[in-house]
Amino acid sequence: MKFYDAKKAVYFTNPRIDLIKLIPKKDDNRILEIGAGGGDTLIEIKRQNLASTVVGIELMEMLNSNQKSGEIDEFIICDVERTELEFPDAYFDVILLGDVIEHLLDPWSFLKKTSRCLKPGGLFIASIPNIRYYTAMIRICLKGDFGYDEQGLFDRTHFRFFCKKNMRSLFNTQSFRCLKIMPRDQLYRIRSKRKVFNRLTFGLFEEFLTLQYIIVSEKV
What we know:
Layout: H1 2-5, H2 10-13, H3 17-20, E1 30-34, H4 40-47, E2 53-58, E3 74-77, E4 92-98, H5 107-114, E5 118-129, H6 134-142, H7 164-170, E6 176-183, H8 193-200, H9 206-209, E7 212-219
Parallel strand pairs: 1-2, 1-4, 2-3, 4-5
Antiparallel strand pairs: 5-7, 6-7
């Protein structure tokens, strides 16, 4: 917990517009965000009329945040890996996992447990950093350095590390199937050297040029 306390407020408070873009356009969605930070993403979802009910779960209480906002229907402070979620079966249409999976000790058991709360046809929408990103490869393979940092790919609060192949298999099981996995950059129209180079090379180096992947997986 002490390593989370050392992080800047912006780490927890920016609304995840990238994930919001992938929520089905319905005003009666029930949405659960795990790793909801200060609640800003949930408030933005309500303001965009993408849900009738929004619920957040976060590891710790944050003062001077929106966790207690009246626009959020319920906000729970708990460790999701150690707590049984007391929601009805098949209750939520969407479960958001923005940069959560890599912080868990056992993501596989967590997803299996959490999927109980998701409706058949409901979606997991997740983002996960890509350890195959070129700066990580340079650091590990050329510099021989796997030291931890306050944030980024080598965040000291990360317990698990994934490449694209591992992300796909994590969200492609008997219980749910991976509908799409894409570089986060694809959700924005910002022109970057990485995006241009990726197109020119027909995606050959995509996994080395992608810092973070977005995954959409459907409960079957």
